Amino acid sequence: MNPNAAPRALRANITLIGRRNAGKSSLVNALVGQEVSIVSEQAGTTTDAVAKAYELLPLGPVTFYDTAGLDDEGSLGELRIRATKKILFKTDIAIVVISEKGIGSEEKAIIDEIRQQKIPFVIAFNKTDINAISAQDIEYCETHKFHYIAVSATNKTKINQLKKLIVDIAPTELKQEPLLVGDLIKAGDNVVLVVPIDLSAPKGRLILPQVQTLREILDANAVASVCKESDLAATLANMKQPAALVITDSQVVMKVAPLVPEEIPFTTFSTLFARYKGDFEILLRGSKKIDELKEGSKVLIAEACSHHVEPDDIGTVKIPNWLQKYCHCYLQFDFYSGCDFPDNLEQYDLVIHCGACMLGRAEMVRRLKECERRGVAITNYGLTISKTQGLLERVCRPLEDHILSKAAL
Ligand SMILES: Nc1nc2c(ncn2[C@@H]2O[C@H](COP(=O)(O)OP(=O)(O)OP(=O)(O)O)[C@@H](O)[C@H]2O)c(=O)[nH]1
Ligand code: SF4
Ligand SMILES: [Mg+2]
Known about the structure:
- With 409 residues, the chain is an alpha/beta fold.
- It has helices spanning 24-32, 74-89, 105-116, 135-143, 159-169, 172-175, 208-219, 232-237, 253-256, 269-277, 280-288, 314-327, 361-373, 381-388, 392-408; strands at residues 12-18, 50-56, 60-66, 93-98, 121-125, 147-150, 190-194, 223-227, 245-248, 266-268, 298-303, 332-337, 350-353, 378-380.
- The site of guanosine-5'-triphosphate has 22 residues, from helix 1.
């Protein structure tokens, strides 16, 4: 864990998918204004996916993936189709490229799959310089309320409009940075941060999540008090106006919880970051899976990057111990670090993800969605710690109350 590292920029993955020869490579070239992908009239030109980084304003940095045609033949073709489908797991926005032949059963199957995976998509009818969209295809798109556009990669027609459509349908996590704590407090509130200064605390400074939280409290014109867990009781007792929120480091949540009166909203930095960095509902759903783990259940501890492992490492030592104690049984743990998930992800009963300090929100949400698409529950370190200490409900309450109050508006 290195919570001081700056988050990587958000980068959206945009995948062009369709039959061979539909013009996927030509369209990628037209979108980025460069000849990055080989184009030919021979079907099956693109065999391995080609990635091209591009700055798509106002969305920001994106990667276009040009994929192999989904009607590729033979055993190698099957492998390519599988590789293309794997890219779909990581796709934020899909462009279904249709050739001059229009939408057939193959295209409908692709669209169904994309919809099932809840990927926003646009249908790009390519080659409209030689063939206009048929009335039947227009009706199909209109009936299903699909976004569609007629383009020509060769003539560069409506390429800018296609880019605009991509930006319009982009998921919200790609468009706006969410708040960490600012929406949970109001001007003048007292917020107490509990920061343990133990051996694992870096010398002479606070860590990034703490600094980021402090900054947001100030931005909200609220007042922050910072103390160690040993000084919390005195800090709360000396306040003329009761604390509006107490936020603690997860690792001391057990010590701190009894010191905070029930009526004072109480949460952890990790819980705030679970919402800020990911999809809170997916993570919360995943944490419920902990109660279903039984003897021999398989748990994957996934870390987004490799790092030096301390003897009491949170991912490899503490969380496995807490979990087994909580579940009263032996669990099988696998550990995986890197920007991908293992191919056999489906065999796990639960994935527990690290705090994702090195990942942008979009990337973390994408990882969460990939697990959902592959039917595997996922939660994260922070929620797991609170759950195994019996405090999950309490530390989530400030966020859930906020979600409910927003829904009531
Ligand atoms: N007339 C016309 N031809 C196009 C257009 N876009 C692509 N083509 C042609 O269609 C053929 C296939 O184009 P590619 O871009 O290689 O198609 P692809 O979907 O990447 O094909 P694979 O990689 O084989 O799956 C080439 O001969 C292109 O010149 C277009 O907008 N209009
Ligand atoms: S991304 Fe995950 S594994 Fe890497 S330093 Fe951050 S919390 Fe630790
Ligand atoms: Mg191609």
